[in-house]
Protein backbone atom coordinates (compact mmCIF):
# COMPACT_ATOMS: atom_id res chain seq x y z
CA UNK A 1 0.00 0.00 0.00
CA UNK A 2 1.30 3.45 -0.89
CA UNK A 3 1.02 6.14 1.72
CA UNK A 4 -0.55 9.48 0.91
CA UNK A 5 1.13 11.33 -1.92
CA UNK A 6 1.98 14.95 -1.37
CA UNK A 7 1.53 17.34 -4.23
CA UNK A 8 4.89 18.24 -5.68
CA UNK A 9 5.63 21.72 -6.96
CA UNK A 10 7.20 21.75 -10.41
CA UNK A 11 10.60 22.68 -9.14
CA UNK A 12 10.16 21.47 -5.63
CA UNK A 13 11.70 18.88 -3.41
CA UNK A 14 11.86 15.25 -4.33
CA UNK A 15 10.27 12.38 -2.50
CA UNK A 16 12.28 9.28 -1.82
CA UNK A 17 10.57 7.67 -4.79
CA UNK A 18 11.66 10.46 -7.04
CA UNK A 19 15.26 10.08 -5.98
CA UNK A 20 15.03 6.39 -6.65
CA UNK A 21 13.78 7.22 -10.12
CA UNK A 22 16.59 9.67 -10.66
CA UNK A 23 19.25 7.12 -10.00
CA UNK A 24 17.96 5.20 -13.01
CA UNK A 25 18.23 8.19 -15.16
CA UNK A 26 21.53 9.80 -14.56
CA UNK A 27 22.46 9.40 -18.22
CA UNK A 28 19.35 11.02 -19.63
CA UNK A 29 19.61 13.99 -17.31
CA UNK A 30 22.06 15.99 -19.41
CA UNK A 31 20.03 15.56 -22.57
CA UNK A 32 18.38 18.98 -22.60
CA UNK A 33 21.34 21.28 -22.18
CA UNK A 34 22.53 23.39 -25.05
CA UNK A 35 19.22 23.94 -26.83
CA UNK A 36 18.34 27.33 -28.31
CA UNK A 37 14.71 28.36 -27.88
CA UNK A 38 14.98 30.74 -30.84
CA UNK A 39 16.39 28.13 -33.20
CA UNK A 40 13.86 25.64 -31.86
CA UNK A 41 10.96 27.94 -32.71
CA UNK A 42 12.14 27.98 -36.34
CA UNK A 43 12.73 24.25 -36.49
CA UNK A 44 9.32 23.53 -34.97
CA UNK A 45 7.26 25.51 -37.46
CA UNK A 46 6.14 22.45 -39.38
CA UNK A 47 5.14 20.68 -36.17
CA UNK A 48 2.36 23.14 -35.36
CA UNK A 49 0.08 21.64 -38.00
CA UNK A 50 -0.46 18.68 -35.69
CA UNK A 51 0.84 19.70 -32.26
CA UNK A 52 -0.91 23.08 -32.27
CA UNK A 53 0.15 26.65 -31.72
CA UNK A 54 3.17 26.68 -29.33
CA UNK A 55 2.68 22.98 -28.73
CA UNK A 56 -0.86 23.11 -27.33
CA UNK A 57 -2.90 20.65 -29.35
CA UNK A 58 -6.67 20.69 -29.75
CA UNK A 59 -6.76 17.31 -31.45
CA UNK A 60 -6.94 14.16 -29.32
CA UNK A 61 -4.75 12.29 -31.80
CA UNK A 62 -1.80 14.65 -31.28
CA UNK A 63 -0.24 15.07 -27.84
CA UNK A 64 0.46 18.56 -26.55
CA UNK A 65 4.18 19.27 -26.25
CA UNK A 66 4.08 22.63 -24.44
CA UNK A 67 5.73 22.57 -21.04
CA UNK A 68 7.08 19.05 -21.32
CA UNK A 69 10.55 18.63 -19.82
CA UNK A 70 13.18 19.31 -22.48
CA UNK A 71 14.97 16.07 -21.71
CA UNK A 72 11.72 14.12 -22.25
CA UNK A 73 11.03 15.76 -25.62
CA UNK A 74 14.63 15.26 -26.71
CA UNK A 75 14.65 11.61 -25.71
CA UNK A 76 11.39 10.91 -27.55
CA UNK A 77 12.51 12.68 -30.73
CA UNK A 78 15.77 10.79 -30.66
CA UNK A 79 13.86 7.54 -30.18
CA UNK A 80 11.57 8.29 -33.14
CA UNK A 81 14.52 9.26 -35.30
CA UNK A 82 16.43 6.10 -34.41
CA UNK A 83 13.35 3.86 -34.74
CA UNK A 84 13.26 3.00 -31.03
CA UNK A 85 9.78 4.45 -30.62
CA UNK A 86 7.67 3.39 -33.55
CA UNK A 87 5.08 5.63 -35.11
CA UNK A 88 4.74 6.02 -38.86
CA UNK A 89 4.12 9.76 -38.73
CA UNK A 90 6.73 10.67 -36.15
CA UNK A 91 9.45 8.37 -37.46
CA UNK A 92 9.20 10.40 -40.67
CA UNK A 93 9.01 13.78 -38.93
CA UNK A 94 12.11 13.09 -36.85
CA UNK A 95 14.16 11.36 -39.55
CA UNK A 96 16.00 14.45 -40.73
CA UNK A 97 16.63 16.13 -37.38
CA UNK A 98 20.18 16.62 -36.14
CA UNK A 99 21.05 16.22 -32.46
CA UNK A 100 21.32 20.01 -32.20
CA UNK A 101 17.91 20.57 -33.80
CA UNK A 102 16.41 18.08 -31.36
CA UNK A 103 17.92 20.00 -28.43
CA UNK A 104 16.66 23.30 -29.86
CA UNK A 105 13.11 22.00 -30.43
CA UNK A 106 13.08 20.48 -26.94
CA UNK A 107 14.17 23.78 -25.40
CA UNK A 108 11.49 25.65 -27.35
CA UNK A 109 8.57 23.42 -26.35
CA UNK A 110 9.74 23.14 -22.75
CA UNK A 111 9.58 26.93 -22.49
CA UNK A 112 5.95 27.18 -23.68
CA UNK A 113 3.07 27.39 -21.25
CA UNK A 114 0.93 24.27 -21.23
CA UNK A 115 -2.74 25.09 -21.73
CA UNK A 116 -5.41 22.45 -21.45
CA UNK A 117 -7.99 23.21 -24.15
CA UNK A 118 -10.73 20.89 -22.97
CA UNK A 119 -11.12 18.19 -20.39
CA UNK A 120 -13.19 15.04 -20.49
CA UNK A 121 -16.53 15.59 -18.81
CA UNK A 122 -16.42 12.32 -16.93
CA UNK A 123 -13.48 11.16 -14.88
CA UNK A 124 -13.23 7.76 -13.24
CA UNK A 125 -13.36 6.90 -9.56
CA UNK A 126 -11.24 3.79 -10.10
CA UNK A 127 -8.82 5.79 -12.24
CA UNK A 128 -8.47 8.56 -9.65
CA UNK A 129 -7.87 5.99 -6.93
CA UNK A 130 -5.17 4.20 -8.91
CA UNK A 131 -3.62 7.49 -9.93
CA UNK A 132 -3.29 8.77 -6.37
CA UNK A 133 -2.85 5.59 -4.34
CA UNK A 134 -1.59 2.95 -6.75
CA UNK A 135 -2.13 -0.64 -5.74
CA UNK A 136 0.05 -3.68 -5.10
CA UNK A 137 2.82 -3.70 -7.76
CA UNK A 138 1.59 -0.44 -9.27
CA UNK A 139 3.21 2.70 -7.89
CA UNK A 140 0.98 5.76 -7.59
CA UNK A 141 1.18 7.77 -10.79
CA UNK A 142 1.02 10.99 -8.78
CA UNK A 143 4.38 10.23 -7.18
CA UNK A 144 6.14 10.88 -10.48
CA UNK A 145 3.58 12.74 -12.62
CA UNK A 146 2.35 15.14 -9.88
CA UNK A 147 -1.10 14.94 -8.29
CA UNK A 148 -2.56 17.25 -10.96
CA UNK A 149 -0.53 15.80 -13.82
CA UNK A 150 2.08 18.55 -14.06
CA UNK A 151 4.93 16.08 -14.34
CA UNK A 152 8.36 16.79 -12.91
CA UNK A 153 10.66 19.06 -14.89
CA UNK A 154 14.02 18.36 -13.23
CA UNK A 155 13.50 14.62 -13.36
CA UNK A 156 12.22 14.72 -16.95
CA UNK A 157 8.92 13.04 -16.08
CA UNK A 158 6.28 14.14 -18.59
CA UNK A 159 3.19 16.15 -17.75
CA UNK A 160 0.00 14.17 -18.35
CA UNK A 161 -2.61 16.92 -18.06
CA UNK A 162 -3.94 17.87 -21.46
CA UNK A 163 -3.32 14.44 -22.99
CA UNK A 164 -6.40 12.76 -24.45
CA UNK A 165 -7.79 9.51 -23.06
CA UNK A 166 -7.10 7.75 -26.35
CA UNK A 167 -3.46 8.86 -26.40
CA UNK A 168 -2.89 7.94 -22.75
CA UNK A 169 -4.48 4.51 -23.19
CA UNK A 170 -2.39 3.83 -26.28
CA UNK A 171 0.79 4.93 -24.50
CA UNK A 172 0.12 2.67 -21.53
CA UNK A 173 -0.50 -0.28 -23.86
CA UNK A 174 2.67 0.55 -25.77
CA UNK A 175 4.69 0.47 -22.54
CA UNK A 176 2.96 -2.74 -21.52
CA UNK A 177 3.77 -4.32 -24.88
CA UNK A 178 7.36 -3.10 -24.87
CA UNK A 179 6.77 -0.81 -27.87
CA UNK A 180 8.04 2.20 -25.98
CA UNK A 181 11.37 1.13 -24.62
CA UNK A 182 13.56 4.21 -25.12
CA UNK A 183 14.28 7.14 -22.81
CA UNK A 184 13.16 6.46 -19.27
CA UNK A 185 10.61 3.84 -20.28
CA UNK A 186 12.13 1.38 -17.80
CA UNK A 187 10.24 3.30 -15.10
CA UNK A 188 6.89 2.75 -16.86
CA UNK A 189 7.16 -0.75 -18.31
CA UNK A 190 6.96 -2.80 -15.08
CA UNK A 191 3.90 -1.02 -13.79
CA UNK A 192 2.17 -0.86 -17.17
CA UNK A 193 2.71 -4.61 -17.44
CA UNK A 194 0.51 -5.01 -14.35
CA UNK A 195 -2.42 -2.99 -15.67
CA UNK A 196 -5.55 -4.59 -17.09
CA UNK A 197 -7.36 -3.02 -20.05
CA UNK A 198 -10.11 -1.82 -17.69
CA UNK A 199 -7.57 -0.17 -15.40
CA UNK A 200 -5.89 1.48 -18.39
CA UNK A 201 -9.24 2.89 -19.55
CA UNK A 202 -10.01 4.11 -16.03
CA UNK A 203 -6.61 5.81 -15.69
CA UNK A 204 -6.96 7.37 -19.14
CA UNK A 205 -10.40 8.76 -18.22
CA UNK A 206 -9.05 10.24 -15.00
CA UNK A 207 -6.02 11.80 -16.69
CA UNK A 208 -8.17 13.29 -19.46
CA UNK A 209 -10.26 14.99 -16.78
CA UNK A 210 -7.26 16.86 -15.27
CA UNK A 211 -7.34 20.55 -16.08
C1 LIG B 1 1.16 14.90 -39.20
C2 LIG B 1 1.05 15.13 -37.78
C3 LIG B 1 2.34 15.37 -37.00
C4 LIG B 1 3.36 16.25 -37.29
C5 LIG B 1 3.50 17.19 -38.48
C6 LIG B 1 4.29 16.15 -36.19
N1 LIG B 1 3.85 15.24 -35.26
FE1 LIG B 1 4.75 14.77 -33.48
N2 LIG B 1 3.30 13.41 -33.09
C7 LIG B 1 2.26 13.08 -33.94
C8 LIG B 1 1.56 11.92 -33.40
C9 LIG B 1 0.37 11.21 -34.04
C10 LIG B 1 2.21 11.57 -32.21
C11 LIG B 1 1.92 10.38 -31.27
C12 LIG B 1 2.72 9.22 -31.82
C13 LIG B 1 2.81 8.01 -30.93
O1 LIG B 1 1.76 7.54 -30.45
O2 LIG B 1 3.95 7.55 -30.72
C14 LIG B 1 3.30 12.52 -32.04
C15 LIG B 1 4.18 12.50 -30.97
C16 LIG B 1 5.21 13.40 -30.79
C17 LIG B 1 6.08 13.45 -29.65
C18 LIG B 1 5.97 12.57 -28.41
C19 LIG B 1 5.05 13.26 -27.42
C20 LIG B 1 4.91 12.54 -26.12
O3 LIG B 1 4.16 13.05 -25.26
O4 LIG B 1 5.53 11.49 -25.91
C21 LIG B 1 6.98 14.46 -29.86
C22 LIG B 1 8.08 14.90 -28.92
C23 LIG B 1 6.68 15.03 -31.14
N3 LIG B 1 5.59 14.38 -31.69
C24 LIG B 1 7.38 16.09 -31.71
C25 LIG B 1 7.14 16.57 -33.00
C26 LIG B 1 7.98 17.53 -33.65
C27 LIG B 1 9.19 18.20 -33.02
C28 LIG B 1 7.46 17.75 -34.89
C29 LIG B 1 7.99 18.66 -36.00
C30 LIG B 1 9.37 18.43 -36.38
C31 LIG B 1 6.30 16.91 -35.01
N4 LIG B 1 6.15 16.20 -33.84
C32 LIG B 1 5.47 16.87 -36.11
C33 LIG B 1 1.91 13.77 -35.09
C34 LIG B 1 2.66 14.73 -35.72
C1 LIG C 1 8.63 6.04 -11.03
C2 LIG C 1 8.05 7.14 -11.76
C3 LIG C 1 6.77 6.89 -12.52
C4 LIG C 1 5.58 6.36 -12.06
C5 LIG C 1 5.27 5.82 -10.69
C6 LIG C 1 4.66 6.44 -13.17
N1 LIG C 1 5.26 7.01 -14.25
FE1 LIG C 1 4.40 7.34 -16.06
N2 LIG C 1 6.18 7.96 -16.81
C7 LIG C 1 7.35 8.05 -16.08
C8 LIG C 1 8.43 8.39 -17.00
C9 LIG C 1 9.88 8.56 -16.62
C10 LIG C 1 7.85 8.49 -18.29
C11 LIG C 1 8.57 8.78 -19.61
C12 LIG C 1 9.11 7.41 -20.10
C13 LIG C 1 9.75 7.45 -21.48
O1 LIG C 1 10.87 7.99 -21.59
O2 LIG C 1 9.12 6.92 -22.43
C14 LIG C 1 6.44 8.24 -18.12
C15 LIG C 1 5.53 8.27 -19.17
C16 LIG C 1 4.17 8.10 -19.03
C17 LIG C 1 3.20 8.29 -20.07
C18 LIG C 1 3.48 8.75 -21.50
C19 LIG C 1 3.33 10.24 -21.58
C20 LIG C 1 3.46 10.79 -22.98
O3 LIG C 1 3.45 12.03 -23.12
O4 LIG C 1 3.57 10.01 -23.94
C21 LIG C 1 1.97 8.02 -19.53
C22 LIG C 1 0.63 8.10 -20.23
C23 LIG C 1 2.19 7.66 -18.14
N3 LIG C 1 3.54 7.73 -17.87
C24 LIG C 1 1.19 7.31 -17.26
C25 LIG C 1 1.41 6.83 -15.97
C26 LIG C 1 0.39 6.25 -15.14
C27 LIG C 1 -1.07 6.14 -15.53
C28 LIG C 1 0.99 5.88 -13.98
C29 LIG C 1 0.37 5.18 -12.78
C30 LIG C 1 -0.31 3.92 -13.04
C31 LIG C 1 2.40 6.22 -14.09
N4 LIG C 1 2.62 6.79 -15.32
C32 LIG C 1 3.35 6.02 -13.10
C33 LIG C 1 7.50 7.86 -14.73
C34 LIG C 1 6.55 7.28 -13.91
From TrEMBL:
Residues in Cytochrome c domain copies: 29-113, 122-211
A Pfam family per the record: Cytochrom_C
GO annotations of cellular component type: periplasmic space
Main localization category: periplasm
Secretion signal, residue range per the UniProt entry: 1-31
SUPFAM superfamilies: Cytochrome c
Entry binding sites for heme c 2: 141, 144-145, 188
Protein name according to UniProt: C-type cytochrome
Biological source species: Guyparkeria halophila
